[in-house]
Amino acid sequence: MKVTVKIWRQKDSRSKGSFQTYPVDNISEEMSFFEMLDMLNESLVKQGEKPVAFDHDCREGICGTCGMFINGRAHGPISGITTCQLHMRRFNDGDTIVVEPWRAKAFPVIQDLVVDRTSFDRIMLSGGYISINSGGAPDANAIPISKISADIAMDGASCIGCGACVATCKNSSAMLFVSAKVSQFAVLPQGQVERKERVQNMVTSMDEEGFGNCTNTYACEAECPKEISVAHIARMNREFLKANLSG
Amino acid sequence: MGWMFDFLNSSIGKKIQMAITGVLLCLFLIIHLIGNLFLFAGPHAFNTYVETLSAVRPIVRSIELILTLIFLGHIFNGIRLIIANRQATSVKYAVNKARENSTIVSRTMGITGSVIFIFLAVHLSTIWYTFQLEHGGGKFFDIVMSNNIGFGNLIVTIFYMIAMFLLGFHLRHGFQSAFQTFGWNHTKYKSIIEVVAVFFWLILPVGFLMIPLYFGLLGGGN
Ligand code: HEM
Ligand code: SF4
Ligand code: FES
After folding, report:
1. A56 and A144 share a domain?
2. Could you report the predicted ipTM of this complex, rounded to two decimals?
3. I want to staple A59 with a disulfide (CB 3.0 to 4.6 A). Which of A50, A84, A92, A206 is the partner?
């Protein structure tokens, strides 16, 4: 296979950046998208050019670092996967593939396709934790938790913080991410101690970081690699309302 | 009171204000449409209906005041949302296939809302205003059908029809969206909301649209 990649190149956060077009030849259909980019980078290095900077770590769909916009979709054209899980067989010979970094005020570009997502970390610091007493480990089965609650919490916990929800949202809203984190604790007994402060602090932090306001387009749910439901957003709205209205 | 202010200014607080005012406006539409349907019963029925309303003017005025506040709340928050969301987004994507992950109605709430706002300004400054100047005399039906501000004017007719069409768009997304905002997203209720929503986004706007269609385009009432 042969493809043409049109990639956003930007020297650093202060530079302007522009698209550069590169042909990549001798690609096999079994290759992952990143192996294709690796090939491109090797040839760029050979030519004495700077390789394309992009975030990646596990390359098995669990760390959430590999965010990029490919042909107008977060993580590429296939739903329910991260970029590292995308294979070249999803493209056709001769295609032009447009690759862009996540776009949102709260995710400034650091270089090429790499963006700064520490705004998510700061939201987590503001409330994405539980308090437990130190001492002997309690028996895991001593606290009864219904199957439904355990499942909802697990769904929320499966968020990998990739930022696709923000990147795809026309409002750059982080509601899906924050709601997944609020939900995962709100439905479990261990999360009750900080339940009220958590939702208030995390929403305040989200607003302060400059994320937009949700208008329920549900694009986030459609693009989330972990297929997290917007029902979590509804739960967070409920939690936030309750936390604010109760004494 | 500080908490109240913070709450109303938070992202979710703004959404909730949008949703409460939006649903209240939906309820107003029901009442407004029922009144308008008297047009189909003929000049006498419609004039009598409007004269009856004039007889209880203090009540009507109080309701209008509340309605104005609701509208202003909805529009004020809508504009705040649009501005805040502009500020939150950075460079536009060169390629963005938004069609593959969201509906067009959900992405154009600001645009459809703005057209409804223009409609509202026109409607209030023409028909509503002229109604206020009349005291009895059975002229109300004729005002609605008049050749300059009413459905005797083709441009007015078409503008009203476009506005009602876009109102349907606005509510196609808006009605169910409000319940998501209230936190009522549950498989148990979702199908009920969807059914009720059809009344608001399809039946109500079509009901309104019938009026310019029948009296303006099809020559009804002559
Ligand atoms: C009869 C008139 C109107 C009705 C019945 C109506 C109804 C609604 C409803 C039910 C919502 C959903 C609330 C939510 O998502 O939580 C909404 C949202 C919205 N409306 Fe209206 N609206 C009307 C007029 C307007 C006007 C005049 C504007 C002008 C700016 C406007 C702009 C918006 C915006 C920007 C949203 C937010 C989008 C969102 O959050 O999904 N609307 N409207
Ligand atoms: S909610 Fe989904 S899209 Fe958003 S950060 Fe988590 S895993 Fe990524
Ligand atoms: S590299 Fe870890 S999820 Fe893609």
Report:
1. no
2. 0.93
3. A84
